Amino acid sequence: MKIREEMTLLMEEYETSGQTQKLFSESKGIGFHKFNYWYRKLQREAAAPGGFHKIESRVPRPVRDCRAELVYPNGVVLRLDSLDPELVSRLIRLY
């Protein structure tokens, strides 16, 4: 069994155990830091499958006829045809 499969099964078991991460990882003979790494990793992946984050805007009327370009340090470029201040703020914090 691959490590990902093993850790996924352990995380499912942990969720129903009622124990703290520290106690659970010790009972399974896994280092706490390794367990916590996998826990956070699998939680992030479950929240955003495929590495994408769903962002919904709560502002009813975005500014029209405006173009903007958001460039992240890793080279990703987002081109926006209309501006929603809250959406832009969330996209900036996403990186």
How would you concisely characterize the structure shown here?
Strands 1-2 form a two-stranded antiparallel ribbon.
Sequence-ordered SSE layout with sheet pairings:
Elements lengths: L2 H15 L3 H7 L4 H16 L20 E4 L5 E4 L4 H10 L1
Antiparallel strand pairs: 1-2
Helix pairs in contact: 1-3
Number of separate strands: 2
* Most strands sheet: 2 strands, antiparallel
Name the helicity range.
Answer: 40-55%
Shape: elongated
Query: What's the helix-strand series?
Result: HHHEEH
> How many distinct domains?
2
Structural class: mainly alpha
Mean pLDDT: 80
* Percentage of β-strand residues: 5-15%
| Parts with pLDDT < 50 across at least 5 consecutive residues | none
Radius of gyration, in Å, reads: 20 Å
Question: DSSP helix count?
Answer: 4
Side-by-side strand order of the widest sheet: 1-2
How far is it from the N-terminal to the C-terminal residue, by CA?
34 Å
Protein name: Transposase
Organism: Cyclobacterium lianum
Structure description:
The protein is mainly alpha-helical. The chain has two domains: 3-51; 55-95, no CATH class. It has helices at 3-17, 21-27, 32-47, 85-94; strands at residues 68-71, 77-80. Strands 1-2 form a two-stranded antiparallel ribbon. Helix 1 (3-17) packs across helix 3. The two termini are 34 Å apart. The model has no long low-confidence stretch (mean pLDDT 80).
